[in-house]
């Protein structure tokens, strides 16, 4: 069994990006700049945004974190988005999701200039992805592709089963794995909570991508020998064995499946760090004007 090491791979990618930033500066170019909007003070969102800001510093990007109170109106938030859209010195804008209930996430996402939508969530960028046109790929699916690519996992002609159909992971993942490219060229089955006989389907998977948010849902009875498993899930559970008092669990029972699979991403240290690396990559692509 080979561990698909997202921590190491993401550090490699960050070093590559940092080298590019140095050469941009050397040739007199402008430093790539990512802006993030955080509404409210949800603990998990705060952690994710801080990790993104820290990653920007690590590669030499500029970053701006705009904190807005929970009580911000949709109009005020949209104004903030517009300001960043119009700022020629900012290459990428992310609005940390989820937003408080009184704010319409789709309306806010649609307000982001697609050229600065480095999360790849804007409908026009999703459409471009579906048509296989150059675009910013959503960071988590893009990170998974990058891991499969760098570990040279053979995907052509394989049966890829995706569990979960969210807009940010499962659905785009299923589209990308079916594309005529590497990684891709899979025969894809997209499953969800209404899927019947899930175990029969997962047992036929050569590549199993699990993104449903239920800790240790997949066990060795549900997979076939030699499967490549990508575990996207992150669930925080209490633990008396860690200093912090909690630990992260994936959607896959790692200990139970590890001797039966060919490749697996650990949690933590698998897909999570890759997501941030790909967000940086998208920001660099934007700064270089490579797509639009
Ligand atoms: P989500 O919006 O939470 O949706 C979960 C999906 O799983 C839905 O499509 C749901 O089906 C499906 N599902 C739920 N129970 C199921 C079951 N028993 N059998 C089959 N399918 C089932 O999904 P998400 O936002 O993609 O998040 C999934 C997990 O990935 C979470 O743990 C999240 O924290 C994690 N995540 C990690 C990263 C990272 O960077 N590592 C990034 C994003 C998300 P229905 O559509 O029918 O409800």
Structure commentary:
The protein has 292 residues and is an alpha/beta fold. The protein contains ten helices and eleven strands. The chain folds into two domains: 28-114, Rossmann fold, CATH 3.40.50.10860; 139-272, NAD(P)-binding Rossmann-like Domain (Rossmann fold). The strands form three sheets. A six-stranded parallel β-sheet has the order 1-11-8-7-5-6. Strands 3-2-4 form a three-stranded parallel β-sheet, with helices on both faces. Strands 9-10 form a two-stranded antiparallel sheet. Strand 2, helix 2 and strand 3 form a beta-alpha-beta unit. The longest helix is centred in the first third of the chain and has 21 residues, at 6-26. The chain is globular, with a radius of gyration of 19 Å. The N and C termini lie far apart (41 Å). It binds NADP nicotinamide-adenine-dinucleotide phosphate.
Low-confidence stretches: none
Going by CATH, the homologous superfamily of the largest domain would be NAD(P)-binding Rossmann-like Domain
What is the domain tally? Answer: 2
The coarse silhouette is globular
| CA gyration radius, whole angstroms | 19 Å
Strand content range: 15-25%
Strands side by side in the biggest sheet: 1-11-8-7-5-6
Helix content: 25-40%
Count all strands and give the number: 11
Mean pLDDT: 97
User: Alpha-carbon distance between the termini?
Assistant: 41 Å
Ligands in the model, by name, code or SMILES, are: NADP nicotinamide-adenine-dinucleotide phosphate
Q: What is the CATH architecture term of the largest domain? A: 3-Layer(aba) Sandwich
The helix-strand sequence is: EHEHEHEHHHEHEHEEEEHEH
Report the CATH topology name of the largest domain.
Rossmann fold
